[in-house]
Write a structure and sequence with these properties.
The chain has five helices and five strands. The protein has one domain: Response regulator (Rossmann fold, 3-Layer(aba) Sandwich). The protein is α/β, with parallel strands linked by helices. InterPro entries: Bact_response_regulator, CheY-like_superfamily, Sig_transdc_resp-reg_receiver.
C-alpha cells in the first residue's frame, strides 16, 4: 500500500519536480495549485503527508495548514513547508500552525525525500 502525499504549490514546474521525486520513491501524489484548491482535495481520503509552499495566491500555505488542522481527518497529518521563505517569523508562524519541517528552495530532491521519510509513519 503506497503512501499518498499532497503537494501544494502555485508553480506547476515545482509540483512536477517534487512529484517526480516522490513518485520515483514510490509515493502516490496529489497536487493542489494553492491553499483553496488543496483544501478541496481533502475529501476524507487518507493523505499521509502534505508538502506546501508558503506564498501562494487565493490562500497562502500557513492559512491552508491552519484550515487543514481543523479537519478531524487531517489534524495529525504532517506538513513540510517547501519555500523560498527562511525568515524566523514565517517559520514560527508555520510551527504554530502545525508545520513539522521547513525545506528552503532551491532544494535537493534527496534532502526533501529524507524529510519526507522521517515524517511519514510506517
Amino acid at each position: 500500500m503506497s503512501k499518498t502525499i499532497l503537494i501544494v504549490d502555485d508553480s506547476s514546474s515545482l509540483r512536477t519536480v517534487v512529484g517526480l521525486a516522490l513518485k520515483g520513491a514510490g509515493y502516490e501524489v496529489i497536487e493542489g495549485c494553492d491553499g483553496k484548491d488543496a483544501l478541496a482535495k481533502l475529501d476524507g481520503r487518507k493523505i499521509h503527508l502534505v508538502i506546501s509552499d508558503v506564498n501562494m495566491p487565493n490562500m497562502d500555505g500557513i492559512s491552508f495548514v491552519k484550515q487543514m488542522k481543523t479537519l478531524p481527518a487531517y489534524k495529525f497529518t504532517p506538513v513540510i513547508m517547501l519555500t523560498t521563505e527562511s525568515g524566523a517569523d514565517k517559520m514560527n508562524a508555520g510551527k504554530e500552525a502545525g508545520v513539522k519541517a521547513w525545506v528552503v528552495k532551491p532544494f535537493q530532491p534527496q534532502q526533501m525525500l529524507q524529510a519526507v521519510q522521517k515524517l511519514i509513519l510506517p
